[in-house]
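Thread: quick sanity check before group meeting

JM: Hey all, I'm pulling together slides for Thursday and realized we never actually wrote out the predicted structure for the chain we discussed last week. Dropping the sequence here so it's in one place. If anyone has concerns about the input, flag it before I start.
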Amino acid sequence: MSHPARRGEMGERFAIGLDLGGTELKAVRLSRAGQVERFLARPSGVRETWETPLASLAGCAMGCGCPGVIRPEDGSLVDRTAHLPHWKGTPVRDELARRLALPVAVDNDANLAALAEHRLGAARGARVCVAITLGTGVGCGIVIEGRIFRGAWGGAGELGHVPLGSGHSGCACGVAGCAEAEASAAGLTQSARALGLEPAEAGTVFARAATGHRGAMEAVERFTERLGALVATAVDLLNPDMVVLGGGLARSGDVWIELLRRAVARHALPSHVGALEIELAAFGERAGAVGAGLLAWDRFGG
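JM (edit): ok, ran it. Output follows.
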């Protein structure tokens, strides 16, 4: 059961916001005013490493973001995702509610990152906000006139599966050349290895590029060129006034954000980039968890 809470019963207590990623779980305890009171991060693969810490956050309702298409009616995962491959059909909302004895609301993780940035972060005041999360994969959330745009059945924003690049990079969805494989941490590290860089973890590549290492700089330029083409696709399609970049790769965003702005300007329609702002997420990799906390307040807080 989903332990439905009556609207207004949360009072002055706290909501838990949970971002259930492919490799890491992030959670916040969020006040009604949007203040992050606590933050934790744990590996997401082992249940015992996160159930007890989540309970310790002492929230009275939970919002949860996870990758993939979420069925709005029951909070279940519609299809297998690349990063949670065994979760197809899982009733995420009801399972979390059962384990934690809390009312739970569930949405796509990138949708919730977009909600956080639009309401409290870098995209406040934007009419059309596109939030792109970059990490293990590529996610995209869209907020139009203050509301999350979910599409006909919850599947809007799957930008990570736009065909991109040569088609040589295999995606976990089974299609070669997806943005998820080309413009994510995996795409960056693949470029770095092709240039002879080892170790080629994303953070290492960005750090070496910041010191002027030629090979690392070339890998970052390839990454931002592919990402720029992807962002330009969203810009031409949706005509946003704000694009926000978050996720784990945003931790090194000062290395690549200006390169990305130039790449988007090259690829997108000139009419669409004149007043466009492209910024790093104010909440960084916490954006999805903060948005999940906001979702809990919206659903259960009155």
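AS: nice. Residues 1-8 have pLDDT under 50 and may be disordered. The domain at 15-112+286-300 is CATH 3.30.420.40 (Nucleotidyltransferase; domain 5).
JM: adding both to the slides.
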